[in-house]
């Protein structure tokens, strides 16, 4: 079992629930089952409204998890996935801190899930084709991603 602690300005206090390791439900489904108000719109990884920050609480390196191309695109479009973080996820199997609750599968590790309660800005579907092509061209400094990677490797 995994302890999942949710923190948000929408909650009167942090709430910890238990996730079943091996269960293939998304973090969004777990939140909904426990009446935790993680915002969502599409439930498919397109809009970014369920953006969350995930921190592993046991001090170990986060368990690897595959990011779909759709999740990579949406996170990058919202400025939450730098080239460096994308490479760390693909090559070193170190997941980024920011994820989409509708895409994140709970693993057997204690995590803190932070969310603002304000849905992300939807991306105009007509722009998807052009923005997907430019995904590898998104420039960010990656400083936060380097610090995160160093902290989980330590």
TrEMBL record:
Which Gene3D superfamilies does its entry note? 3.10.20.30
Extent of Basic and acidic residues compositional bias: 143-154
Q: What's the protein called, per UniProt?
A: Ferredoxin
InterPro entries referenced in this protein's UniProt entry, alphabetically: 2Fe-2S_ferredoxin-like_sf, 2Fe-2S_ferredoxin-type, 2Fe2S_fd_BS, Beta-grasp_dom_sf
Residue ranges of the 2Fe-2S ferredoxin-type domain?
A: 2-119
Note down the stretches annotated as region Disordered.
Answer: 132-154
GO MF term set: 2 iron, 2 sulfur cluster binding
């Amino acid at each position: 079992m995994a302890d999942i602690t949710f923190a948000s300005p929408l909650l009167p206090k942090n709430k910890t629930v238990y996730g079943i390791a091996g269960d293939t439900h998304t973090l969004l489904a777990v939140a909904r089952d426990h009446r935790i108000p993680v915002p969502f719109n599409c439930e498919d990884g397109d809009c970014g409204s369920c953006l969350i920050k995930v921190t592993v609480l046991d001090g170990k390196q986060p368990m690897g998890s595959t990011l779909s191309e759709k999740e990579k695109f949406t996170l990058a479009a919202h400025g939450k996935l730098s080239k460096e973080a994308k490479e760390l996820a693909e090559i070193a199997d170190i997941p980024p801190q920011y994820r989409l609750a509708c895409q994140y599968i709970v693993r057997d590790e204690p995590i803190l899930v932070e969310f603002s309660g304000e849905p992300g800005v939807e991306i105009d579907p007509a722009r998807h084709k052009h923005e997907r092509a430019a995904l590898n061209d998104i420039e960010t400094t990656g400083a936060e991603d380097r610090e995160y990677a160093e902290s989980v490797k330590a």
